[in-house]
Amino acid sequence: MNTSEPLSLQPRPTVTAARVTPIKLAHLVFRTRRLSQMVDWYRTVLGAHVVFAADEITFLTYDDEHHRIALMGSNDWTDPAPPDSIGFYHVAFTYQSLEQLLQTYTRLKAIGILPYYPIVHGPTVSMYYRDPDGNAIELQIDVFETSDEATAWMNGEAFRRNPIGVIFDPEDMIRRYEAGEPIAQLTRRADT
Buried-most residue among 10, 39, 71, 183 (CB within 10 A)? Predict the structure, then answer.
């Protein structure tokens, strides 16, 4: 008797057209003519490490995913679309706390990487940066404990009046943070 074969095969469920959703956003892939600069930038900004590198492609990650960013390098790519064109706008990376976001800002500022758009959106506090190819990269924290709380806030009057948010000064926020101002006050939009 061969004991390696299953005693019975379990029937599988019928495949239907029912709606299912992905379980996560796995990775982003960028094309570039500046492969080494882009690798260095994402390693610096996100604290990522190289998982695999070859002449024309590099895979990086900063967490338990096998790769979060892939960079494909070639001198044959055409120029990127200007920032005011339609299409991809930005990608966001979430930090665990305001302290981590401000610490990242301070670290990047020390090496000359500054946000071009620091803003309190309402559901997030965000700082937007440009990578070497000009792609917009948002570093953020979630303001609310749960997605339901954020969604409820987004359905409120303040967000309806201003769905973009209020610009803030990162240096001022650091001063206020270090002075002990409550996190809830620091992350609240100035117009609410």
Answer: 71
pLDDT per residue as tens digits for the range 32-87: 999 999 999 999 999 999 999 999 999 999 999 999 999 999 999 888 788 788 88
Task: Please give the pLDDT value at position 81.
Answer: 81
Q: Give 118's strand partners.
A: 127
- Are 36 and 102 in a shared domain? no
Find the domain containing 100 and state its range.
Answer: 89-192
Angle at 100 between CA 115 and CA 184, to 5 degrees: 95
- In angstroms, the Cα distances linking 52 to 29, 67, 73, 75, 149 are 14, 9, 14, 20, 39
The reply to whether 58 and 123 lie within a common domain is no
Q: What CATH number corresponds to the domain at position 30?
A: 3.10.180.10
pTM: 0.88
